[in-house]
Specification:
2 copies of one chain form a homodimer. The first copy, chain A, has 581 residues and is of the alpha+beta class. The first copy, chain A, folds into 3 domains: 242 residues, BirA Bifunctional Protein, domain 2, CATH 3.30.930.10; 142 residues, YbaK protein (Alpha-Beta Complex); 97 residues, Anticodon-binding domain (Rossmann fold, 3-Layer(aba) Sandwich). Helices cover 26% and strands 29% of the residues of chain A. In chain A, strands 3, 7, 8, 9, 10, 11, 12, 21 and 24 form a 9-stranded mixed sheet that branches. In chain A, strands 16-14-15-17-20 form a 5-stranded mixed sheet. In chain A, strands 28-27-29-30-31 form a 5-stranded mixed sheet, sandwiched between helices. In chain A, helix 1 crosses helix 12 and helix 2 runs antiparallel to helix 6. The two termini of chain A are 24 Å apart. At the A-B interface, strand 1, strand 2, helix 2, strand 3 and strand 4 of A face strand 1, strand 2, helix 2, strand 3 and strand 4 of B.
């Protein structure tokens, strides 16, 4: 490609609404152009990256035995009504009506349509397993689209769906996909982690997120540096402390803490470690009748160490919480504690509540909590002596760095990541809702066992940039760079020698299969270099009259601090050596 | 690809709603699966064809200097309001509202968005010409979607848009695209014709349709077998007859023609050629005031030879018709002719009308038309004697086979075609509406000159099938076949020799870059052959124990009447020879 035949359109300034570096740099590098909130044109430079992502995904999906098809963007509502998602999903599901007033949705995923296809196509266990995928435009009407391609409304996703005869086979299909995902992310040249994720109501542990590591990532990733353990924050288990509960040494003492309604404030006031305080979170669960009206509510008191945070996913799995929970209302709190929030605790309750102690709280002695009286806390609290042993002890907190790894191999560390892929065992959730069966070996109909597997094709480049950039711009891994190499001739219009060498190097790289662009725009060197550093092409060859007199050109990798002189005889081999490095 | 790893899903019966052969065969061959009216899943077998079409289009577009980008499927209404198309377009433009109640459309084309991009990107004439294209999902909410992929609602289109500094440059860009389209359609291996098309209000003659020739085509194509002239029916000119008008020889005679209200019936009754009759078409034009109310109507009488048909596009271009026309109402007809339709004519009018005679009618003598009296016609009608010379003589009819070619090179012939591509000079229609300007060499802003260029990517396979099929199924051209070759082993599970030779041939073809599938499903030969003949894979190699004993396998091209024996030593070369044939 010659630059004069392409669209190179860089900007000095990032758009005002760009909050994250990938959004800023993709816009400045002319890769995306905003059309509306969360809706972007993929400009020629950006589309090249997306196409490379797609090609790698497609190749590895095919290699893993998945079969490509394409499901419509506009999908009739009927199938979505079969699974109930047409009504259950929030406004992020874009619902539309056609000219005849019939309901349609724009696909955010395609479980319904692929299940409909397979229930028609697959009749016998002999046709299983099957895995269908598509690389297709999706739409989610996010309330607050932002971060460019990171959280857009229209985006491209690779979604795959496996269909198996039983759970064992479904797990094998899942593992094949997880393996393919590892190959895909390896090929992208990104630092990533596959982390165990919560599998929701389906249970089991067959759910993994593929997280591109980046300090700016939205997700907290938990891992163990001395083992292979990795999970997302929702999933990572906080083990029960190995040390037993200490003996009570302090008397229960009511202490004035005027205006100190947080554990931090109380610990500071009393000059004790935050870890000696206990925070009280008051939740409630409702029992509904068939009309969906609340017939009974139960108030819960969750106790967490002052320096720990509640994990909503773990709380949602407590026995009795399966139907969902909410924070208690002020009147429920007054009613049970006789006090307003900020000074609550499990001692001296006005009415009984369901107490759940986090594992760490359950082994504490001589702790501090609210006195259920405004502007007072109590110190020297001890289980069994000052209050009954907790009704339930459970892991209800987020892990913190330094916690023991659940696999017993060391301590946990935490880093930030951007989710770009997800493999998920679905079980029979969709096949049951849509009566998608096949005839088993015994001739009886059985529900299809399913898995689903997504990769955010347009999100991936944004994640790659969050991980790989500097103050000058993007630094693409070779595999997904818009161009792998750029030839920058200086004074091409003035010097025949420069022009000839530039063409020679350009054609030589092309012939070697390198995706190279020749910058024949005639820009000044400073502007030209700034463009390519912003765009992030990893390999640059600069050709000037001065060097040519000595028989050399300059090579610089985008990560190199400075360029190195390479003889014209060696430059092609030099680039190729750096490519395969 | 091995068949066991793919989805081969053929049907004995075509769906009840399939009216055309391509719809029937694509469904039966498992290439598409209906999801809703005009909305199809592209099944794995069909998607392979679509991807090959896309690849050829992409390659030739790139070669022609067009730059690929992608514009969103969901587009904000604002740009469509700028050009007025948001309001002007009918319900085929699918309008939607997002969660905030903002208006959007699903793109049927992208003139607005690409013009918006270019008006931001292009500042100077130095950046021109530019041509941007995308291969992207489109939606047109057809009132009556049918014919499978031929007239679907959701479809894939390649749309390109050229931007130039002046008309001369725009015409050059247009010619580059027209040339690229020829290369593309040549590569598809289809019989097609590029035909001049009407360019509507823009004028000029820079509009060509690319029509795949097929007896089942919706469009009539006019061409001259002895020259390069080709046009669609709307556009093809009917030249003025070269012979002068004959002298009047008959007296004007009123003739009873009870119940004979068509030219055909009258000609049969009077036993004269249909070409001696003249049919009267009564149209009307309205003058509107600023409120859009009709303030005045004009009645027109169009006269055509009884064996000719009116051409609406030509009529729409008559002076006075620019604002559109309609058929006259019954009361307008009674009012001007004093008679009901079926017996109308230009002689003895009750009120004056604007008479337009087709060129052929203007040279007729002794002709027959309605008497403006029910159940009567008049014969021996002659211009100048029985009625004034026509106010206007014009080409207002469709050409018929045997008409003189407008280029003077012979006679016209007519065949049927399916429009799969269109190149169109747009001028400044969109750039003016959207104020898309660039600075010319004189430093003054000028409107961009545009062209647009479409290829129906998902329609093309359907057109290819309409042109290439037989009673057994599809016959794909090599370039767009889902698989180029299929290896069919007979009794692979019983015979090691068959299995080994099948693998050898399969791997040999793969290594030679042939897109081959090995049918390892273990189907019986009859069912296996029927599948591949239905699917339409052009090259088949059948391997059986019996032949292998003689050192031969069977080769059959999908168009061959029977298979031929080829030695195992020669089979790879034989297939490749047939491929390049």
């Amino acid at each position: 490609m010659k630059a004069s035949q392409f669209l190179i359109s860089t900007l000095k300034e990032a758009p005002a609404d760009a909050e994250v570096v990938s959004h800023k740099l993709m816009t400045r590098a002319g890769m995306i152009k905003k059309l509306g909130a969360g809706i972007y044109n993929y400009m020629p430079m950006g589309l090249r990256v997306i196409r490379k992502v797609e090609a790698i995904v497609r190749e590895e999906m095919n290699r893993a035995g998945a079969i490509e098809m394409t499901m419509p963007v506009v999908q009739p509502a009927e199938l979505w009504q079969e699974t109930g998602r047409f009504d259950k999903m929030g406004p992020e599901l874009l619902r539309i009506k056609d000219r005849h007033g019939r309901d349609f949705v724009i696909q955010p995923t395609s479980e319904e349509v692929v299940t409909d296809v397979v229930r028609q196509e697959v009749r016998s266990y002999k046709q299983l397993p099957k895995n269908f995928y598509q690389i297709q435009t999706k739409f989610r009407d996010e309330r607050r689209p932002r971060f460019g391609l990171m959280r857009g409304r229209e985006f491209i996703m690779k979604d795959a769906y496996s269909f198996d005869r039983d759970m064992a086979s479904a797990k094998a299909s899942y593992q094949v996909m997880a393996g393919a995902y590892r190959k895909i992310f390896d090929r992208f040249g990104l630092t990533y982690r596959a982390v165990a994720a919560d599998s929701g109501a389906i249970g089991g542990d067959l759910s993994e997120e593929f997280q591109v590591i980046a300090a700016t990532g939205e997700d907290a990733i938990v891992y163990c540096p001395s083992s292979s353990y990795a999970a997302n924050m929702e999933k990572a288990e906080a083990l029960a402390p190995s040390q037993p509960r200490g003996a009570a040494t302090q008397a229960l003492t009511k202490t004035p803490t005027p205006g100190k309604s947080t554990c931090e404030d109380v610990a500071a006031l009393l000059n004790v470690p935050l870890s000696t305080t206990v925070k009280s979170l008051v939740l409630a669960t409702d029992t509904l009748n068939e009309q969906g009206e609340i017939v009974k509510s139960q108030v819960w008191l969750l106790l967490l160490r002052g320096d720990h945070d509640m994990n909503e996913v773990k709380v949602g799995k407590l026995p009795g919480m399966e139907g969902g929970f909410r924070f208690a209302t002020l009147s429920e709190i007054e009613d049970h504690f006789g006090c307003k929030p900020g000074y609550l605790g499990p001692v001296n309750l006005k009415k009984p509540v369901h107490v759940v102690a986090d594992r760490d709280v359950s082994v504490m002695a001589d702790w501090i909590c609210g006195a259920n009286e405004e502007d007072f806390h109590i110190t020297g609290v001890n289980w069994g002596r000052d209050l009954p042993e907790p009704a339930l002890v459970a892991d209800i907190r987020n892990v913190v760095a330094g916690d023991k790894s659940p696999d017993g191999q060391g301590e946990l560390a935490i880093e930030r990541g951007i989710e770009v892929g997800h493999v998920f065992y679905l079980g029979t959730k969709y096949s049951k809702a849509m009566n998608a069966t096949f005839l088993g070996e015994d001739g009886k109909p059985q529900f299809l066992e399913m898995g689903c597997y997504g990769i955010g094709v347009t999100r991936l480049p944004a994640a790659a940039i969050e991980q790989n950039h500097d103050e000058r711009g993007i630094i693409w891994p070779d595999a997904i760079a818009p161009f792998t190499a750029v030839v920058c001739p200086i004074g091409m219009d003035r010097s025949e020698a420069v022009k000839a060498e530039a063409e020679r190097v350009y054609n030589g790289l092309l012939a070697a299969g390198v995706d190279v662009i020749l910058d024949d725009r005639g820009e000044r060197p400073g502007a030209m270099f700034a463009d390519w550093e912003l765009i992030g092409v990893p390999h640059r060859i600069t050709i000037g009259d001065k060097g040519l007199k000595d028989g050399v050109v300059e090579y610089q990798h985008r990560r190199d601090a400075q360029s190195s002189k390479v003889s014209t005889a060696d430059i092609l081999a030099h680039v190729q050596a750096r490519l395969s490095a």
